[in-house]
Amino acid sequence: MVQKLKEHKLAQEKMKKRFGEYFHQELDLVFSKSDGAYHNRSNVRRQLYNLMKKVKVRRITFLDLSHTQSSMLFGRANPSIVQKRLGHNDIQTTYRYYGHLWANVDKEAVDSLEGEMEKTRMKTE
Question: Which residues have a Cβ under 8 Å from the Cβ of 80 and sit 6 or more positions away?
């Protein structure tokens, strides 16, 4: 994946040179149109849906993708990281939408600790 992103960056640098002052460098987008501008939302959404249909994956929205990513990260990453990835201004917003997942993390931590304690107990017997 990193190699693909490096290749993409090189291609983007070529486009910057080609478009010169007309390249929208101020936007600093990773995935942009060839002139550095934003892609049209409808086109991106249509391409996503076509790709999902092609690979026979259930159709979901970008918001669904965002929620899925957040839910997966919330139990495994520091909540402030999730907050930043989602673009929330404050951690309370993140907790309001994903705080219920934190309870699962607490139970997993206790279960893990109990498992380790049981291993230690078995070694000493």
Answer: 91
**Helix 91-98 and helix 62-74: axis angle, to 10°?**
100
Task: Give me the residue label for tokens 């291609």.
Answer: 11
pLDDT score, position 114: 81
pTM reported for the whole predicted model: 0.54
CA 90 to chain centre: 18
Other C-beta atoms lying within 10 Å of the C-beta of residue 49: 13
Angle between helices 91-98 and 79-86 (to 10 degrees): 100
Supply the DSSP string of 30-90, one letter for each residue: SS--TTSPPPPHHHHHHHHHHHHHHTT-----HHHHHHHHHHHHHTTS-HHHHHHHHT-SS
Burial class (CB in 10 A: 0-12, 13-18, 19+), 96: exposed
* For residues 31-43, average pLDDT: 91
